[in-house]
Amino acid sequence: MLKKAEIQKVLEILEKTYGNTGTALKFRTPFQLLVATMMAAQSTDKQVNKITEKLFQQYPNPQSFLKLDVTELEEKIKGVGLYRNKARNILATAQKIVKDYGGKVPQSRGELMKLPGVGRKTANVVLSIAFNHDAIAVDTHVFRVANRIGLAEAKTPLETERQLMKNIPKEKWSQAHHWLIWHGRQICRAQNPRCQVCPLTPYCRFYQKAQKKQSDSQR
Question: Of 131, 149, 177, which residue constitutes the final position of a domain?
Fold first, then answer.
């Protein structure tokens, strides 16, 4: 794992590179963000936005979603992965929000995770973006990039989140979450990472190991 001074430098570079970037998901309310985030698993934000643009015009709140049955919602969101499971969870979540929370999305992680299909990552996204709480949501990009660079050294998303919370100042948690996502999408890709244009190579443990391996093989 990177040392404290190195972590600070990495964060400075990420902030300079990505600044005030936020989520690519389009939404107008906490409920819409929740639904979009639930849909985004095993899909892309671009594909989710394509579907929700029309969906949220017709069904803007949890009450209106309850006019749909599962088959109808499946048909409307079938462009995303696992759409059948997502349709069931979204409708069950809308029902619980209306019944138990007066139609408003709860603002605590514990209550959010009681909603069907809402795990810790989704809860943290909603807390951070919709309610401006300090939180780090560890998706596949954050998990990969954080552990490659050396901001974390963990085998699970939960342990990665805990290490990032320890290594990153609390007031930067939500921003850092977006920086790591954008870095993962644009440069530190799962396949063929673009190390040749990455500003973090002087600190990146993944890059340094790759360089050492290449140097050793040439001897």
Answer: 131
Q: Within 10 Å of residue 27's Cβ, how many Cβ atoms?
A: 19
Q: What are the tens digits of pLDDT across the range 74-102?
A: 999 999 999 999 999 999 999 999 999 99
Q: Is residue 219 part of a domain?
A: no
Q: Rounded to 5, what percent of the chain is helix, strand, coil? A: 65, 0, 35
Mean pLDDT of the chain: 96
- State the pTM of this model: 0.92
Question: Amino acid letter at 42?
Answer: Q
CB atoms under 10 Å from CB of 165, counted, come to 15
Contacts of 163 (CB under 8 A, 6+ apart): 1, 146, 151, 152, 153, 154
Q: What is the pLDDT of residue 219?
A: 66
Residues carrying an active site annotation: 121, 139
